[in-house]
Automatic annotation (TrEMBL):
Pfam families: ABC_tran. The keyword Transport applies. It comes from Nepenthes gracilis. PROSITE patterns: ABC_TRANSPORTER_1 (PS00211), ABC_TRANSPORTER_2 (PS50893). The keyword Glycosyltransferase does not apply. GO terms for molecular function: ATP binding; ATP hydrolysis activity. This is ABC transporter domain-containing protein. The lineage of its organism: Eukaryota, Viridiplantae, Streptophyta, Embryophyta, Tracheophyta. Signal peptide: none annotated. SMART domains: AAA.
Length: 345
């Protein structure tokens, strides 16, 4: 049984499962589930067989005008080899509340996708389903063309690492920044402590943080915590010969931040994408990402394509610039924040 909460993050290569160590928060016997501070449970994802990050993928150039044709219309792009994640006719209810009612979409290699829609429409739910924290009642999730069965588990073979960054930074309060960022490496990798510490420092620098390794989360500002959470989601074992592509799912990454801090986070999200350049001026490592957001600035700045979810269904999809000019009444009302229109509160 999985529970998730706003206080958890996850990034997740669980190849071979987790081994217990003294660093670890308390966790249960189920290798894919562990309990933090006796309050929460987390499930992490995804694994093997590792393939080279570039194999089989044709990188999609989102700025290419041909892409406008692909996503701005119902035209289906040729070839499926670049599809990393697909939700096919996904349904999800909580008790009598029917939240998702047949949601289908694909996330392709290289994409920066936003999921938007009114509160309570199921945006976070779909992220959790993609991450394998929740199972759909009906419909399927395909990871690199392979159907996922049930929740994510250490037995799953996907060849795709999926990280979920929850709305709050979700750091482990009693662990230092170094231990938070390096958590999965301490638990899962054969890397030595010094190696991990070096990688943590480098990864923190990539998100613009220096000299905070020994601090506790309580000693950081909200914006810094979000950066630490981002660092934790992009760190990976660089001693392995092959690297799986990684998709990061961000749940409202700029909620609660002032406009300038939001811009910083939006740019960081871009910078860790492989088309971007991190703070160390190196290309980012993230293949694709999905952002759930309500913030107009985040829609404009951080994503290229949008999926609009309303009353459990996708009612509009298009490129970000098409959002503002859309004639869809639901989109128009959402974009303008008007009380008049088909969306009723
Ligand atoms: N584990 C759960 N048990 C019962 N109901 C749930 C659960 N998770 C979500 N819900 C309900 O499902 C609906 C959709 O929740 P979800 O968090 O996915 O919406 P959202 O679109 O992300 O909302 P917001 O924009 O306000 O964050 C809400 O009514 C919520 O209360």
């Amino acid at each position: 049984m999985v529970s998730s909460s706003s206080s958890l993050l996850f990034s997740l290569p669980l190849c071979g499962g987790i081994s217990h160590s003294t660093r670890s928060p308390v966790y249960s016997a189920n290798l894919s589930t562990f309990r933090v501070s006796e309050k929460r449970e987390i499930v992490c994802a995804c694994m093997a067989p590792p393939r080279n990050a570039t194999d089989g993928f044709s990188t999609l150039n989102i700025n290419d005008s041909s892409v406008t044709k692909i996503f701005g219309s119902a035209q289906e792009p040729e070839g499926e080899s670049d599809v990393l994640i697909e939700c096919r006719n996904v349904y999800k209810s909580f008790g009598k509340k029917h939240i998702l009612k047949g949601v289908s979409f694909k996330i392709r290699h290289g994409e920066a996708v936003g999921i938007i829609g009114t509160s309570g429409t199921g945006k976070s739910t779909i992220l959790k389903i993609i991450a394998g924290l929740l199972a759909p009642d009906k419909g399927d999730v395909y990871i690199r063309g392979r159907k996922r069965h049930g929740l994510i588990s250490d037995e799953e073979i996907s060849g795709l690492r999926i990280g979920l960054v929850f709305q709050s930074a979700a750091l482990f309060d009693s662990l230092t920044v170094r231990e938070n960022v390096g958590f999965l490496l301490y638990e899962n990798s054969s890397m030595g402590e010094e190696q991990i510490a070096e990688l943590v420092t480098e990864t923190l620098a990539a998100v613009g943080l220096k000299g905070v390794e020994d601090r506790l989360p309580s000693e950081l500002s909200g914006g810094m915590k979000k950066r630490v959470a981002l660092a934790r989601s992009i760190i990976f074992d660089n001693t392995k010969e092959t690297v799986e592509p990684e998709v990061i799912l961000y749940d409202e990454p700029t909620a609660g931040l002032d406009p300038i801090a939001s811009t910083v986070v939006e740019d960081l999200i871009r910078s860790v994408h492989f088309k971007g350049e991190d703070e160390l001026r190196k290309p980012g490592k993230i293949a694709s990402y999905v952002v759930v957001t309500h913030q107009h600035s985040t829609i404009r700045r951080a994503v290229d394509r949008l999926i609009f979810l309303h009353e459990g269904k996708i009612v509009w999809e298009g490129l970000t610039h098409e959002f503002i000019t859309s004639t869809n009444p639901i989109v128009q009302q959402f974009a303008s924040g008007s009380l008049d229109g088909p969306i009723k509160y």
